[in-house]
Automatic annotation (TrEMBL):
The active site is at 235 (nucleophile). Belongs to the glycosyl hydrolase 10 (cellulase F) family. Its EC number is 3.2.1.8. The lineage of its organism: Bacteria, Bacillati, Actinomycetota, Actinomycetes, Streptosporangiales. This is Beta-xylanase. Residues 1-298 form the GH10 domain.
Amino acid sequence: ASTLGAAAAQSGRYFGTAIAAGRLGDSAYTTIAGREFNMVTPENEMKIDATEPQQGRFNFSAGDQVYNWAVQHGMRVRGHTLAWYAQQPGWMQSLSGSALRQAMINHINGVMAHYKGKLAYWDVVNEAFADGGSGGRRDSNLQRTGNDWIEVAFRTARAADPDVKLCYNDYNIEDWSAAKTQGVYNMVRDFKSRGVPIDCVGFQSHFNSGDPYKSNFRTTLQSFAALGVDVAITELDVQGASATTYANITNDCLAVSRCVGMTVWGVRDSDSWRSGDTPLLFDGNGNKKAAYNSVLNAL
Ligand code: XIL
């Protein structure tokens, strides 16, 4: 195969990218994206501040732009994200307690109704665990509504659209020895044992020199999959874009039958949220980097 998407499809997997609505007018960008990928995650357009800028007033214009572009190019879409401590609109930031809990439920229902039957995956909850050694939850306005907020979000999501796969998504949960990884693992194990609806776990995989890729990522993917969830690499970027690291990560996903696909967090280095790290597979001129070839060869 000569593209990432076609190469991933040889083993029944997808290869995706984050797409930004604001770049869809850039033909160099859309040429690469349209050719290489077969899954799309809207980079910001389905986040809470974008879809419900005023309470109870939903706006799907940017989300639909990305969704429609993906469908026109034969690609599936991962929704991102319904409940998160960040990128909340001002009105939500100022809520707490039962009013915030109800607003979260209303938000999930409102957004999922619009995209019902259209998406492959939803990141229902994003980044709910704390960094560092506690293995516990991140403090946030949502967490302060009660520890059950995550399972309420997943139960609400299942009822809103029974056909989309429901994912928990987080960063720095790739290292099996990390307390944060174990905290998320224990939550997923608990959810599966109690019948809380969860179908998948997304490993963002933002790697950098301070928290580099480690070979036990494969153990992490295998351990979560053994709980009965699909796993995916959802926001991959690697500071410096080492070709070896990209190949290792690709091989880790391929080694786990329930690793359903990989998504890189942008097309060219110049599109990246951390462009200074040149972490992606295409350079700013749209040329394939060494990491591109190493991923394509591994797939
Ligand atoms: C980032 C986007 O790439 C930026 O454009 C935006 O300014 C901030 O958010 N984890 C996530 C993503 O789940 O939504 C974040 O995306 C990167 C970290």
